[in-house]
Amino acid sequence: MSVVQEDAAPADTGGWGDGTFANPVVAGFHPDPSVCRVGEDYFLACSSFEYFPGVPIFHSRDLVHWEQIGNALDRPSQLSLPPETPSSGGVYAPTLRHHDGRFWLIVTNVAPGGGNMLFTATDPAGPWSEPLRMPGVGGIDPDLVWDDEGRCWCTTAGVHQVRIDPVAGTALGEPTRLWSGTPGAQAPEAPHLYRIGAYWYLLIAEGGTERGHAVCVARGPAPDGPFEPCPANPILTHRGTNRPIQNTGHADLVEAPDGSWWMVFLGVRPRGGTPGWHVLGRETFLAPVTWVDGWPVVGEVVPAMAAPPWPPRPVAVPPVRDDFDADRLHPRWVSVRARPAECWSSSDRPGWLTLRARGGSLDDPDVTFVGRRQQDPSCRVRALVDAAEGHGGLAVRLDERHHYEIEAGDGQVRVTARAGSFRPTVATRPAPAGPLRLRIDVVASSPEQWHPREEPDVLYLGVEDQDGTFDVLAELDGRYLSTEVAGGFTGRVIGMYAASGTVRFDWFDYE
């Protein structure tokens, strides 16, 4: 790894159009990013909480354009999320590293029978190994780093540290307490250790993952310290500001091939009135890092960022429509806690996704659901649904107590809105025989029309006729599907579900 350098002159940004890129770089519910580089390739992992498969893995060649190449935990033997796992439980804060010719992923499963687990792979797209359980390592947000002698150190939220044997999964001694950030600050977490130049740097988050979130750093002569805090801490925070990107924290550093440094971190984009509601979850953002007097300095974080000093390497844009013609679902599709083989099929009726009900509604922790993260403030979702053998349709889910859905079955279409203890049927209408198009439009509020209680967005749920006419059955306030109302750590996931019997989907559009 190269020695820390002072600020360098920016290079040519040709090929980036107007010379900027858009933040976030991984939109939608993709929090707690961890990044590593191998040659000219970057790889990134994020938290997935109660969704299966777990830990989405992304690849990029320019740090800006990311393509999901898999999920690290894509087999039931790797990830158990029983029905009693609460929403916003499950898989927390992975650390992804490359060492000695292989990829290493350490993560916490906050579920019954879970704990800290270590996985390895030679290809980050998978397959990843079976879990190596680490009963001697407690806490969450585990980090991995190897020193010059090849010893492996694991640091966790708190901030505590213990040497481990990464092959056996055993702790080599008792955990010790390291520097834990600003005295009195809540939730010192997300530790990452780096050897950069003459120092070991300890990067942490503090202040909680809400509006007080921040990134702080300390440095010392060895991986176990002692550490001195940066005099300019926090090196990143948006607390107390009116910036459009809030809750900035939980960061990871990476060095580019040209010697420049960059930081990935989570943030949110609240909308509407006071206090501001974020509905997409915590997303992954990118900012440049320079070094002054041996300390990292994070560049300004805005929605339109100055492009990196290398040509862009775009990735394929996902198609609007999934026709379910493949034998396997794309890795962007996730389910709630599990996806038993007997509950879904893409071959029972070729070209259709078949879902068989388990739980009776989105209220149930074992509902049969296949969805994707909402990644845009405004979007349109449509599906052609055949509910002749059951009940099901389209849903926007935050958790069991906060979801909106439009459901077909028994010759009717109905809209249900769950918000906490309330679960009214908002609208119904007769449905013609045969498959029908269900549709949900999400329309973000306009900042030009702000008022103190303005909703972040409005969701329109209804049926689309063959000619494209949208028969809107319900118009619902989006704030009740936000983290500020529901609580927790996730964001919206939009998809298909079966509440009873068998429901089939010919295609699904997201645009």
What kind of sheet is the major sheet? Answer: 12 strands, antiparallel
Measured between the Cα atoms of the first and last residue, the distance is 42 Å
Low-confidence stretches: 1-14
Derived structural class: mainly beta
Put simply, the count of helices is: 1
The gross shape turns out to be: globular
Layout of strands and helices, then pairs:
Blueprint: E1 20-22, E2 34-38, E3 41-45, E4 51-52, E5 54-60, E6 67-73, E7 90-99, E8 102-110, E9 115-121, E10 132-133, E11 143-146, E12 152-156, E13 160-165, E14 170-171, E15 176-177, E16 189-196, E17 199-206, E18 214-220, E19 228-229, E20 236-237, E21 246-255, E22 261-268, E23 283-292, E24 295-298, E25 304-306, E26 321-322, E27 335-336, E28 344-345, E29 353-356, E30 368-373, E31 379-399, E32 402-409, E33 412-419, E34 425-430, E35 436-444, E36 457-464, E37 470-477, H1 483-486, E38 493-510
Antiparallel strand pairs: 1-25, 2-3, 3-5, 4-27, 5-6, 7-8, 8-9, 9-10, 11-12, 12-13, 13-14, 13-15, 16-17, 17-18, 18-19, 18-20, 21-22, 22-23, 23-24, 26-38, 28-29, 29-38, 30-38, 31-32, 31-35, 31-38, 32-33, 33-34, 35-36, 36-37
